[in-house]
Amino acid sequence: MFSAAPTTPAEYWDKYKPYRGEGDQLRPAAGAFDWTGIPGHGPGAELLGNPATALDLGPAEGENAAFLARQGVRVTAVDFSSAQVDRARRFWADEPRLTFVHAEACAFLFKEEQRFDAIYSTWGAVWFTDPEKLLPLVAARLARGGVFGFSHREPVVGQYGAQQMGGKWLEGRETELTVLRWQYTAEQWADVLKRHGFMSVRAEELPNPDRAALGTLLVTATAG
Ligand SMILES: C[S@@+](CC[C@H](N)C(=O)[O-])C[C@H]1O[C@@H](n2cnc3c(N)ncnc32)[C@H](O)[C@@H]1O
Fold first, then answer.
1. What's the predicted TM-score (pTM) here?
2. How far apart are CA 28 and CA 59, in angstroms?
3. Contact criterion met (CB below 8 Å) for 56 and 65
4. Which CATH number fits the domain 29-222, given the four candidates 3.40.50.720, 3.40.630.30, 3.20.20.30, 3.40.50.150?
5. 66 CA to centre of own chain
6. How far is the CA of 13 from the centre of ligand 1 (A)?
7. Distance of CA 205 to CAs 37, 148, 149, 151, 187, Å?
8. Which of the listed residues 11, 13, 34, 68 should we mutate to test ligand 1's pocket, taking the one with most ligand atoms within 8 A of CB?
9. Is the pLDDT of residue 2 over 60?
10. To which H or E segment does residue 43 belong?
11. Residue 179 has pLDDT above 80, yes or no
């Protein structure tokens, strides 16, 4: 019997934020740039400087990319989940400065020839890709002085480097699929980024307002 259970990481992410409502799904608000997933909490797009072009790695529904596009930034948003890209294209069809690309982040960066003023990822592909593969590719596509920024959930103490993500984390899963995510402390990220030639590294933990919940690890750096 046919099983809809994912067998690749991209299919796994097809199950992210499934829509179970009636009629067309309404697009999310894009009223602010959000690093933390908690509306109104933490800094915003100012961390990216004043870019003319930006690349979003792992946008899913794409509201951060849409926010930047509405500020006048030309945004390319790359996600390897076909379901996420299809939905984001529907949501933001009226944003002329925003382009969604269906591709794996490293594959896209390897082929791309343009340099971007800002490259960012909010709980996105940077969290789920081996930094030893991804960071050289990001460095090569970041304009001189451009900003690389990313966030992920604050790691559980002692769980650093490549971590197996519980296969039943997303809804509608019948079978397990191991997906990896790479997470570090602020100090570890600073070392990893400097080793790959990034400068002006700022890495910090933003505590969750709900003290019982994990916060956000937020990192920015510039290209050398
Ligand atoms: C937890 S969601 C985060 C979505 C969004 N950035 C946000 O802030 O809500 C992770 C997204 O990253 C995408 N992703 C993960 N690894 C990727 C990769 N290697 N290449 C491209 N997209 C990837 C997934 O498909 C998914 O849409």
1. 0.95
2. 13
3. yes
4. 3.40.50.150
5. 14
6. 7
7. 14, 17, 14, 10, 10
8. 13
9. no
10. none
11. yes
